[in-house]
Structures are given as structure tokens and as C-alpha cells.
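User: Okay, second chain of the day. Same drill as before: sequence in, C-alpha cells out.
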Amino acid sequence: MNSSDYDHLVRTQVFDFLGELADRYGDVLPIEPLRQGINFHGHRVPLLGPQGIFKPKILDLPISITTAPNSPYDDSFTEDNLVRYRYRGTDPHHRDNVGLRALMMERKPLVYFHGIVPGRYVATWPAFVVGDDPKGLAVSIAVDDRAALSERVILGANDDDANSRRRYVTAAVKVRLHQRLFRERVLAAYREQCALCRLRHTSLLEAAHITPDSSPDGEPVVKNGVSLCKLHHAAFDQNILGIRPDYVVEIRKDILEEIDGPMLRFGLQQMHGQKIIIPRRVDFRPDRIALEGRYQAFRET
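Assistant: Same drill. C-alpha cells below.
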């Protein structure tokens, strides 16, 4: 088996493994199985390491790049829907940076891990190095559609169709990352529980925007979010319940007067007048001005 075939088999098994993890955990993956990685013919192949650009021992070129939570590196999405990923250090000839350029020349895919909170990552693959800026100490990364992950794509032509598709997919990845960042950081601030009913099943928890994300002021920051279970998030969005600037919950008058089963009584009506749980960190607590605006919209319903 030549080195190119060997490399292809390892990367294919890595991508299959990540697909299995995504089926099990969803978009946000815990770090433990990523550190453990796969077993390839008796060789353990971790998927990431302590450095952002990671090459396992059995490969000649990197298998992944990582943006750590609160990373000091200026990794960001460009206006033309590419990821600008910083070199390791300031030497363009460092072996890790040379490895990224080699991936570009050989058109081989890798995984882009984006840290959401410590120990939890969104994995995006296949990602390709599509540009190099030695003076700016960075490369450009584009993400491709997993459905297009074939031998032709892995080895294939960097044609206009592929470029357009990758920019479209990378733009979608940007949106997904912002959503996951917001959810995970809000849930972490609220100690992974609903701020109203204290439900702790994370699969049933969501990050509700106070000022909607469709608004120019609806920034995806923790103080513009509240951790709510699916029921209370839907009720908040539909103005069935409101949260006053003093963090007290109000249930809409017609709902309070309605007679129905125990879900209405215990799930909503008994929330009236209760105070929500708030984060311990003062700068993570719901923005009172934003709550005031949202509460007025609730009152006008």
C-alpha cells in the first residue's frame, strides 16, 4: 500500500468515526473520545492534541486543526465565507505550517474542531486548506459537504463548482457554530438547568434569546440569553410567559384563567410570580434593559 492510499484510509476511518460520534452526541462532542481517537491496524490515532495543528504519528500530514475555547489566535470567518486559520507561531517554515501547505497542494481533507466551552467541540469535516498567506501568518480553510466526500473530492479538482459549494457550506457552518456557541455558553452559565423549572436534562434545554437574534441588537452573548426547557422556551417565544427586569416570571392572564390538565397547572400557571435562577457571574446575568423591552412586548400581547 502506498502512502497516499494509507493516508486516504486513515482519514476515511476518522471521518466515519466522527459521524458515529455525531449520531451519539449531536453537534457538540466531548473531548475524551476525540483524544482517544481510532484504532487503525493496531495504531491509536488521536484526533486532536495540545497544539492547534495536529499530526498523528502514523501520518505525514496533519489530520486536524483546532480553535480552542477562548483561543488567543485570531481564527475567524472572512467576508467571502472562508475560515482564516492562524499559523502555529511566527515561522512560516515551522513543520506544522508546512504541513498545512502540503495539504493544500495535495488537496487532502482534514477536520476543523472549534471549541465551544472547555472540553466540548464542534467537529466540521471535510475541511480543505484552499489558500496560504505567509506574510499574514495564516491559511484559508473551506468546508465541504459530507455528501460530496468521495475519492474524487478528496483527491479531486479544485474547480469552480467545488469552490462555490464549499463557500456555501462554510457559511452554513458559521451560522451553526454561532448557534452552538450561544447554547453551550448559556447552558453552562445556568449550570445546565432550566431557569424556571430547574429541569437538568440537557437534551431538553435550549438557549432562549431575550432580544431575538433577528434583531440588530440580538447578539449571541450570554447576557442576552436564558436557559429554558423546550416548554418554557416555546412559551417565552409565544409571549405566554414574560420575565420582568427584576427576574420575576409572569404568566399571561388568559392562560392563568384557563382550565386544563396538570401540564398547564404545574408547567405554567404555578410559575407565575416565581423568580428565575440567574447565573452566579454578574456579567452573565440577563440584561435588564433587554428584559424590559421583551417584557413590554409580553404586556402588549
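Residues 151-157 have pLDDT under 50 and may be disordered.

User: Thanks, on to the next one.
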